[in-house]
Task: structure prediction
Amino acid sequence: MEVIKAGAERTFYHSFPRRRASDTPEVINEKGLELLVAISQMGLILAPEVVEWSIPLSDGSTKVIRHRQMRICFTELSQSELPRHAEVFGPFAMEFHIDILRQLGALPVIYVPQMVKGDRLFSSFGPVM
Result:
């Protein structure tokens, strides 16, 4: 765990492109540059993700709710943490201050756990809420 010095500025980063095992450094750089061009032409790129919740009903059956979300991820880091972050999430990074992200409508991530298999009581609260 890295110790952050008092007063070290922390900002939010969007890093890309995520590496695949077969990617060479040249491929990563090419992908990153292509994404930068796309971002300059279209704005930030949101990726689709399907989220599925299984909700137990009072009659013993289960209702499945599927929701397609468009997402982009930002990670709060100090500049000294960025190189290690880039190893996983990509060597290109865009930096944003939180007030700008909030003005753009960014919201914190909220993880909603699935219910425990076989439990029809409290573990199902997350998806219902």
Q: What stands out?
A: The longest strand covers residues 47-56. Residues 25-42 form the longest helix (18 residues). The helical segments are 25-42, 82-89, 98-103, 125-128.
